[in-house]
Amino acid sequence: MNRRDALTTVALAGAAMAATAPVKADTAPTSTLDRIKKSGVLRIAVIAGQDPYFHKDLATNQWSGACIDMANDIAGKLGAKVEMLESTWGNQILDLQADKVDLAFAVNPTPERSLVIDFSTPILVHSFTVITKKGFAKPQTWTDLNKAEVKIAVDIGSTHETIARRYCPKADILGFKTRDEAILAVSTGRADCNVSLAVLSIFTLKKNPTLGELAIPRPILTLPTNLGIRAEADRRYKDFLSAWADYNRSLGQTREWLLKAYQTVGLSADDIPGEVQF
């Protein structure tokens, strides 16, 4: 065998060995569910000033509220612990897309959002309400607010803003970074009212009874609120969260988590108007 034939034989042998050698498995998680189980961490978005969903104790920086209880329940079933990232209603969708969080609570499934993220089945169905400042006539219909002289405060990027702009396009709509700022605008007289989900409005007025009054304009507007997740081909995480949402909503557990958060300001089920769904 000449030198050239020898080199060819060695090369062929090397290629054969490479072809039959075991390929090292890629151990990186391939889906959100795999990542959570591997890391033991469920990352969620939390939003300050959104009682009873989220409450941040400014003295201790500890979080509580209905959504924290829900997150702990979900994490427990996945063998994980909860890790929190402070966000806003407007930014939590971006945080999902950027892979900063694995779960966003109380996300309304709009067509626009469905193009960029995915959703579980609803955890609740909410009614929209209005908090009016003292002395401002309680609106009986949304048309009563659809006037150029009416100033409506909303938190930017929320469904509150969507409803205000959809049903009161003629009104002077004032956008604020947070709902706390929007409520402050009402309390100081800068705005005439604030559009909010009933679950939030009831808590706010119980905590601040001098703020104003609760109105439920007709027609009564309702919208499901869901868990938001990243869109991915693996459906196991979505299917798990949908089963979790259906199970706890049907048993009344989700309502109990909300009522538990309400109790921190002395609210009970009897304080909830009959027209309000949740």
Automatic annotation (TrEMBL):
Q: Which Gene3D superfamilies match?
A: Periplasmic binding protein-like II
From the UniProt annotation, give the residues forming the signal peptide: 1-25
Q: Which keywords, in A-to-Z order, does the entry hold?
A: Signal
Domain Solute-binding protein family 3/N-terminal, first and last residues per copy: 41-261
Which InterPro entries does the record associate with it? Solute-binding_3/MltF_N, TAT_signal_bac_arc
Extract the NCBIfam families matched here.
TAT_signal_seq (TIGR01409)
Q: PANTHER family, per this entry?
A: ARGININE-BINDING EXTRACELLULAR PROTEIN ARTP, MEMBRANE-BOUND LYTIC MUREIN TRANSGLYCOSYLASE F
**Protein name per the record:** ABC transporter substrate-binding protein
